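Protocol step 4 of 6: record predicted structures for both targets in the notebook before any analysis. Target 1:
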Amino acid sequence: MRTVRSAPGPDRPATYSILPAPGELPVAAWRLDHGLRSGGTFEEHAHDFPGLAYFATSGGLLRTGRRAWAIEAGDLFVIAPGDVMGRIHATDLAGAEGWGVFFTSDALGPDVPGAHLAWRTHPLLFPFVRGGAIGALRLRVPAAERPEWTARIRALHDELAQRRDGYREAVSAHLTLLLVAVSRLAADVVGDLRENREQLLADVFEVIEERYPLPLSLRDVAAAVSVSPGHLTSTVRRRTGRTVQEWITERRMVQARRLLTATDLPIGEIGRRVGFPDPGYFARTFRKVHGVSPARWRRAQT
C-alpha cells in the first residue's frame, strides 16, 4: 500500500492520499512506532482518508489539532479526513504500543450498506469523520475490551500481509467489526467532546441531538447554550468548518437515512419524524445533500 504526498501551500500541512495498486484493497494497518525508534521525525500532516490510532499501553505522545496527548492505555483516536496530525519526533512513540488502521471510503465495498451505515451515519461521530476541523477525536476502549481490539487489528494486519485465499473477505469482516465497535464507543460523543475540552461544541451537539425532530433554528440553539447567534455561528464554523444549521440538517439526514434503510415508512412520514413537516421541503433538502431523491436512495440500499 503506497501513500502519495501533496503540498497544498506554504501555510498548510502536507496531505497524504492512499494509492492502492491495481486490485489491491484500500486498507492499511501498521505499527505506529515503526521506523521511529532509530531516530528522525515525521512532518505535520493531514490525510484525505479516515483512520484509527489505537494504543494498547500507556507511554509516548501524540499531537493532533491543538493538543499534545500523553498516550494512555486504551486510547483510540478517530482521525477524520483533513484532521491535522502534529509533527512526530523520534522519541514521541518510543514507549508506545499502538496500531494505525487507515482506509478509503469504499474499503467495505458496495455490498455491505449496513456496515457502511454503522460508521458513516452514526449520529454524532459522523461530523468528525467528515468535518476534520477540530482534530482527531479521542475515545477510550474499556480495559476488558482491549485484548480483543489488539487481536483484531493484528489479524487485519496479518491478512493484508499474507494475502491468503479469502483475505479480502477477512479484511472486510475485521474492518467492519472495528468500525462498528468505534460506533458503539462513540455513543457518548458529547461526553467525549467535554473530555476533549470542547464544552461549547458538546452543548451544541447535545441540543441538536435532543431537538432535531422538532422545529429548531440557530437562534433556538444559541438561546439553549446561552450565547449570541453571531458568536455561536463564528465559533462553530471556525471549529468544525460548518454552520449550526448545517449540523442540524446533517443530524436530520443521518436519521432519515437510517429510517429509509431500516423501515418501510412512507417518505413523507420519515420527513416528519426528522423535523420536516413539509414533504416537499424534505425531498428537496435530501436531494440537495445526497444528489438523489429519498426514494432513489432507499432503492439503492436494498
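Target 2:
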Amino acid sequence: MMDETTISAKSPGKLILLGEYAVLEKAPALVAAVNRHCKVQIESLYNSTFQVRTPNLNIPEIQFILDKDGDAHFRTNVDSKTQEQLHFVLAILKYVSQKAGKIPGASISIDTTSFYHRITGNKFGLGSSAALTVSLVSALMKYIGKNITEEVLYREAFLAHRFAQGKMGSGVDIAASTTGGIISYTMPEDPEQLNGNIQRIKRPDNLYMACIWAGYAVSTRNFVRNVHTYKNEQQKAYDKLLGTMSMLSREGVKAFAGNDSEAFLDIISDFLECERQLGKSSGTEIVSDVHEEISSIVKAQGGTYKPSGAGGGDIGIAFCNSHECMEKITSAIEGSMFDLMKLEIQNKGVQISERKEVG
C-alpha cells in the first residue's frame, strides 16, 4: 500500500499603491496583497509521469516526464502553441528539480480564474504569474518534503520567476503573494542575493481606496522595456525624473506608515504627474486616455487617482480620506462605462495544506 499525497497551495495577487518604476531604482514601493488567488493542487502519481491541468486556460491536459536536468519530455506530440502556453510552468518545474532534487510524478492542477474578467476573458494586472510562481514553488517544495521559511520562499520564488521569465521585474509581486497584507518593499541591492526589504505596514485610519478596471490589459514587459530604452538614451533626464519619483515613493511610504492620509494623497497627485511625464518622455502611454478619463471622474468627486502597476490599461486606484467622498466616487464610477472591482486586502500570504491517504 502507498500513501496518496495531495498538496494544496493558494497565493494572493497584488495591487501596487505607490512606487511603480521607482522601485526598479531601489526606491520603496507600497503594495497590497488582494483577494484574488492562484490555486495549485498537486496529487501524487505512482510512476514518474506528470500531467498538468489548467481548467480556466483551455490548455489541453498533457503528460510528460522530467529528465535528470528537469527538462520535460512529452508522452505524445504537443503542438508549439501548447508548449509555449506551458513554458512558464515547465520552467518552474525545472528550476525546483535542479535546486531541490528529483520531483516524483504528479498530477498538477493550476487555477488562475480569479485573475481574468469573467465575461471578456481579459487578464487583470494583479500579478497572476507571481501568484502562480509562489503557489507552485511552495507546493512543490512541500511535495518533495522540503519545509521552507517565508523568507526562503520569497527568494526561491523570485529566482524561479526570473528563471521562467527572464531578469525583469523588481520582485514586488512575489513579495506580496508570499507575505500578504500591505507591505513596503525595496528590491535587493545585490540581485544575486535577493534579500529584498519587506516591511508590513498598516493602512491609515481614514484612507479609503476603490479599484477601477480600465477595461483592457497591457504588457508590463513592453512598458518596462520602453522606459529602460529611455533610460539608456537620455540618462540625465531619466535620472532627474526617477529621482523625483523615488523621493515621492519614500515620502509616501513614510506618510502611509505614519497614519498621515492627507500627506499621502498629495504625494499620489504628484506621483501621477511624474508618471505622465515618464510616459511622454519614453513614448509609453502610462497614463492613457482611459486613465485620464477615470482620473477626471474621481477628481470631480474630490478624490485622487493613479494607475496601479505599469499603467496604460489594467487597474487604477481612487483614494480619498472620507467615507462621504468615497461614496460619491463609487456612485460616479457605477454610472460610467468603467467597472468597480471588489478587491479587498488579503492579510494572509501563501497558504499551504497537505492531505495523506493510505491507498
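Step 5 preliminary note on target 2. The mean pLDDT is 92. The CA atoms of residues 27 and 334 lie 35 Å apart.
Proceed to step 6 after PI sign-off.
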